[in-house]
Write a structure and sequence with these properties.
Elements lengths: L10 H44 L4 H11 L3 H21 L1 H13 L5 H14 L15 E2 L6 E2 L9 E3 L10 E5 L4 E4 L6 E4 L16 E3 L39
Antiparallel strand pairs: 1-2, 3-7, 4-5, 5-6
Helix pairs in contact: 1-2, 1-3
Length: 254
Amino acid sequence: MSKKGQLLTTPAAMKRETSQIAANQEVLRQTQRTSLLREATELTEKSVQRALTKSPRDPSVTSRALAAAALTPTEMTEHVEERLRLLDVVRATGPEAMFELLVGLLSGSDGDLRVRVEVQRALSKVFPRPADASAGLVPGLSHCKRCHQSYDPRYNVDGDCQIAHAENTASPHELIKKNTKESIWRTACCHKDITADPDIPRLVPGPEHGLCFSGRHAASDKDIDWFNCVTIVRCSTSGPGGRCDREPPKSSYT
């Protein structure tokens, strides 16, 4: 015990702690291995059942299907060990490095062509094309019809969808009143009245003028009161697969 009442960590204690951490990691790894082996066995059994269902009366076809569907104990062990190895690799690589790796493979700038093709096939299964062409790029996300950004409908609250007033428009903001103390401008985008200094030649909206819109994301045109054709416009379906390729409007002022 030190003079200040704090317990000093000895080399022996540090060694015991390190050994305990390693033991806990091994227990976790064994638990994962058992779980993955059970999963592989269940998948094999389901594959066998599907083979029997397809050709129950043809012994030759059934035997070939069973041979193709079933995994041997050695193959199942190798399958599980490879999954555990890849889990360790992904965890050690980290999110930023993994992101850069996947972007490089998908853009065609990194890796062997065959590897890139296999990566694309795998990711196409993880992120299938949505049935709704206007849906978001990522499964589970929706496309906002107002701000044209993807969002998670489970977490959609007031203030998530924000659109700034237009800065440059074909129709400039209208000066409707002016005196020695202030000027009042009506915005061309949402027709809101904004109070500004009396000596400005034209209105350039900023943070002090609030937002053109602030509320929840809209999954349907019916959820939008008004398309002002400036900052709030309908989806453009000229993107790949009829997906909306509209650029999101500014949500803040620069």
